[in-house]
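Collaboration report, partner site 2.

Our partner group contributed sequences for two proteins of shared interest, and the home lab folded both. The records are reproduced in the order in which they were received, starting with the first partner submission.
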Amino acid sequence: MVEPTLHPVCQNRNDWSDDEFRACLRTWLADHYPKEWRQTDRRPFLRLRGDDLRACMRLLNDHGWRAPAWPREFGGMGLGFRKQWIYQQEWERAGGARTVEPGETHLAPTLFRYGTAQQRAGLLPRILRCDDLWVQGYSEPGAGSDLASLCTRAVREGEHFIVNGQKIWTTQAAESSHIFALVRTGQFPKKQQGISFLLIDLKSPGVRIRPIVNLAGDDELCEVFFDDVRVPLGNLVGELDQGWQVAKSLLGHERLWLGSPAMAARALGIAERLVSEAGLASDLGVTDRLAKLQADLHDYRTLYAQVCNRVADHDADPGPAASMLKIYISELLQRIVQFSIDAAAEHGGQTGDVRIGDLLTDLHWSYMMARPTTIYAGCNEVLRDLLAKSVLQLAPAR
């Protein structure tokens, strides 16, 4: 496979020291990453969508900064975990927008392990160039946290599967071209059996997408309906009825990136500015709450670094630590944003831009963006149950 065209400064980056790699990436981001794609006080959790997301991924690909975790033989950067961590740190330091691109982070690793040579050859280059934008089709009405209860069905008919059913909370489906979905293809005693992993073109006849407008005014979440959608048999990834095992192996180190302190750190920076601009620095009640949040984030950063260092030093899976990190940082983020709402007094209930001294921000939007963090990527209640069973060895309550 032909290697991507690399930015001249960054040739042989895998042979560089960590410090050289960090400096190289920092320079590239300063020189090439557009300001309009950077997070600001007004939009601290900015996420790129649609055409902006495609343009960003193509920019990275053109300069050799796409797919840091992919093996080089598949067109990625082939970085070890420590350099992936540096990549994440520098992206966050530069204020790079959040990107949700499941084709790179979810589907590709699945194809590396379970895909056929034909699937890898046909799909991976298109993912790198962002010719195809993929979304994840797992959750359904009545089968969210209990994913094994899904009802979307695929029945074989000749050389196709006929798919009927519905997916929900499908992020960015309206702007995407394809979906990888879990569908039921058989009935077995255990409900985790009889599920298959299927690739579906969202432009296929019978596919209908309906955006869901949330309380922040965004419509990135969608419902996806399948009505007698014909999907070629060659779009099955892995063995028939073995999709549960495929899906379980799908996430790698991406689970650790979900625990990154970056969003909470950006929210805390806004909270600190708000306290100063609102003239609350002498209010001991306010500063006491702020100091506790600062201490909690400091401690969490130390814990996060310890987990990442352990993974890097021992080439280990994060295991239950990934769930623990996700629980803590999502709830800390919510506490920080709630503090800002409270400290803003009458401005805390406003929607849209709010100016407090020299600070211009949208507290309502930030609040609404922070609320679902305890739900997506495994809701915290379910993760706590898993930790209770796998770490504490607690028996289920009766």
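Second partner submission, folded after the first:
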Amino acid sequence: MTSSHYDLILVGGGLSASLIALALQKKRPEIRLAIIDAGERFGGNHTWSSFASDLDAEGHALVAPLIAHRWPENQIRFPSVSRAFDVGYQSATSERLHAAITRTLPAEGRFLATPVVATTPTSVTLADQRTLTANAVIDARGQKISDHLELGFQKFVGLEVEFAGPHGLKGPIIMDATVDQHDGYRFVYVLPFTPTTALIEDTYYADGPVLDRAAVAARVHAYAAAQGWQIVRTLREEDGVLPIAIDGDIEAHLAAFPPGIAPVGMSAALFHPVTGYSFPDAVRLALHIADLPDLSGAAIDRAVRSYATDRWNERGFYRLLNKMLFKVAEPQLRWKVLQRFYTLRPSLVGRFYAGHSTTYDKMRILTGKPPVPFWKAVRLVMKDI
């Protein structure tokens, strides 16, 4: 049995862990890191998107090597509202994330196809019975079922495809809800990567996590055909079931993780409660950890749990909106809630996505003709006061 020692071991090689590693390498290059993943590639098979306004200058600098595509505008489509937003949008890819990690971290700190069987605050045991020791261990192995969080689900199947000719899009379609509604609120999301290629995701805000991949993939093909796009080949596929936060006890949720080992990313409920976007939160947490004066396991654990609790407590308004969406609006009419939202000012929409809604923003979102049954919504709000 061999043993190796590191200042910090990241268990899991997805988005959050990789960004923490990149931030530490950039700001604290003296730190000896290890990042371990059971898969064949850091970052898996994902596309992560965000609005340009979601990140500050330091965040943009950190993720610049990961961004594969940028657009100056985006659009939404609903039955009664279609509009374009002159707001930058960008997408990072797992291919670029993997390349950044392999380029930045020394080989002795990178472990792929390496399952982990046990962790302690100062050690990680691998499936081949090697033990790596560390001053700190972070658990970044993704979201876990929790008895302490009430969740809805955003689930999708995405196909990156090549068309026979140009698709004609200038920027992403963030939501196209003009499609038939299935399994809750359905919309199609389109990222035009080149003039003749795009990622098309058929997405659902649903009560349950079950995803019929074959049926949803068939709807992607049907959507493309309805737009007049002839698919000549599929370049890549991805799918996911993301949490949408409705309610819960964040302190009890975090207490279920072993003390001394910081849970990060989706495990720490660090995602936008309404949109499910995790990329901005992962960037902010990575920079927060890299700036900590004490990088001992206990200090990182305290800081991360405090950070996750603060973010959860700040976002009660967004969870209230989810309660209205999932508990008040009829599933087949949930699109009306989102349609009304997108009639508001672009600056308000931008702050919403960034998780920085002002008091005025919140009042504006909740006032006006309600797209959900009024008294049922009032009773729901009063219950939480």
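Feedback sent to the partner group on the second submission included the following. The two ends are 57 Å apart (CA to CA). Residues 316-384 form one domain.
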